[in-house]
Structures are given as structure tokens and as C-alpha cells.
Design brief:
mainly alpha; 66% helix
């Protein structure tokens, strides 16, 4: 699930929703805690929905609505 969330985050960079991370953040995983928080949220979502299967749309929704605002740089217009 970490990989999938990371891929969605990378896609956000590709589509211009986030600027590319500085080289130092690419290599040392500065977004790791935010990705872990998003994964924990997805697991919790699944648990409270009695094991309902998570879809890619669920992941995209959590990344777009929660993770992107967490990792956006101050002053960056998100919406």
C-alpha cells in the first residue's frame, strides 16, 4: 500500500499538482511519515467498513484530499 500511495503522489507531481521534491527529499524520504499516515487512514477506513475492499479510487481520494495538502509547500496554491 505504501508503494501505491507513493505512486499516486508521484502522479500528482507529473500532473502538476505538486512541484518535484528537491533532490535531498527524493533520496531521504521526507514524505515517508505523510505516506504512512495516508496508509494508516486507508487501513482504518477499511476496518470501519467491515473489511470492504479498498479501490484505487479510495487511495486517490485520500491522497488528493488529505496527503497532498500535507506535503504541499507553504504558499503553494492547492485549489
Amino acid at each position: 500500500m505504501h508503494r501505491l500511495v507513493g505512486e499516486v503522489l508521484a502522479h500528482a507531481v507529473e500532473r502538476g499538482d505538486l512541484p518535484p521534491p528537491p533532490p535531498s527529499e527524493e533520496s531521504d524520504g521526507k514524505c515517508a511519515i505523510e505516506i504512512s499516515a495516508a496508509v494508516a487512514l486507508l487501513i482504518q477506513w477499511q476496518l470501519v467498513r467491515d473489511g470492504e475492499a479498498l479501490t484505487e479510487d479510495h487511495v486517490v481520494s485520500v491522497v488528493d484530499r488529505i496527503l497532498l495538502p500535507l506535503v504541499s509547500r507553504p504558499g503553494q496554491d492547492r485549489m
